[in-house]
Amino acid sequence: MLSERQVDAYTDVLLWALKTARRKPYRHGDAILIRYDLAAIRMAEELHAKILDMGMNPVLRVGLIPGMERDFYTKANRRQLVFQPAGEKELCHSLSGGIYLNAPDALTHLADVDPKKIGKAATARKPLRDILDRREEKGAFAWTLCVVPTKELARHAGLAVKQYETQVVRACYLDEKEPVRKWESIFRNAVAIKKWLTAMRIKALHVESANVDLLVKPGERRRWVGMTGHNIPSFEIFISPDWRGTEGVYCADQPSYRNGNYVEGVRLVFRKGSVVKVEAKKGGAFVSKYLGLDRGAGRVGEFSLTDKRFSRINRFMANTLYDENYGGLHGNCHLAVGSSYSDSYSGDPSKLTKTVKNRLGFNASAIHWDLVNTEKKRVTARLAGGEKRVVYEDGMFRY
Questions:
Q1: Do 149 and 297 have their domain in common?
Q2: How do residues 292-332 score in pLDDT, each as one tens digit?
Q3: For the segment 44-74, what is each residue's pLDDT rounded down to a tens digit?
Q4: Are both 236 and 378 inside the same structural domain?
């Protein structure tokens, strides 16, 4: 649906993002994975050509179509659920980058599948993700992802296809004369905000809105990260907090599509860092089972804030990447249950061992699920010296 000019601009932005996300420069001969849905084949074709022109080696993997994915979870036995093809570990060890093109043709096709089966398959794939995470911590791997508009996404968002496409174009600044230069400007602004937040020595954050009253403790050896090229678009500034310090109530007023399920009105109550009560207006059974898939699934892996001055997203998009970067009238915060991000560690991530992660309260899980709140809110920082300071209000950082 995107024009050829927009595809060209979009792929240029993705390649800029991939370079920005990696701490070490790419070299000729590096292997770059392009994982794509069928509806994104034109984008994949363009990336394939540009990566070849850069002297690197594109590796293409097409995702399962909805019918195949449903067949897998309904027909696979226990051994088939956890099966990993020969060569997958070797591929992960050899990759220098990954670009993921999300273009779903179905969003609720797994609604009647047992979440435990989905979780079992995800847990079996976690060692592969761990390989990539360790390579990223050493600066040898980076990734980025994006959304390519589809009729299914537009339908679930309640938008005409052209409206949905316009949101994507505007959100990614593809309507700018030089989109990459615009992203470079956003990146510079983000660097200043992250330095400001990290320098404050925040002991705790109190998040208040109509339905949220939550305390989040960043923890020791943390830094704020975000807008690093990992997602296009991305306007969030986030931290992976010490999961043990989460207390209170968090509500997601944005619906969510997760593993082929629709969820709405999630309300979580935290005590001593763990979810002790789960409610949802729709999809409650799925949420309860999903947050029990492993020990870390009901703990916090990320806390994030988006400044409405950067984000041009002002509609529900039925896609987490866009909804977690919602700008609108009040910006947004989102809380992710599940795995944490090691790049939020203030030291050298390559030295962040499992023992150190546990000691510092970095959460580990096979899942990572972003739950978004777009209500008008205030976020107050409690500083090391006892002072309180409002750091986010009316959808903007008070920088």
A1: no
A2: 999 999 999 999 999 999 999 999 999 999 999 999 999 99
A3: 999 999 999 999 999 999 999 999 999 999 9
A4: yes
Q: Which residues pair with 225 in a beta bridge?
A: 238
What's the CA gap between 319 and 22, in Å, rounded?
Answer: 25
Q: How far is CA 70 from the centre of its chain?
A: 24
Domain-embedded: residue 239: yes
Contacts of 187 (CB under 8 A, 6+ apart): 20, 227, 229
Structural domain range at position 30: 4-179
The rounded distance, in Å, linking the Cα atoms of 194 and 199 is 8
Quick one: which of 165, 71, 157 has its CA closest to 121? Answer: 71
Please work out, in degrees rounded to the nearest 5, the angle formed at the alpha carbon of residue 351 by the alpha carbons of 346 and 357.
70
Q: What is the pTM of this model?
A: 0.89
Q: Is 293 helix (H, G, I), strand (E, B) or coil?
A: coil
171 and 206 inside one domain: no
First to last CA, the chain: 39
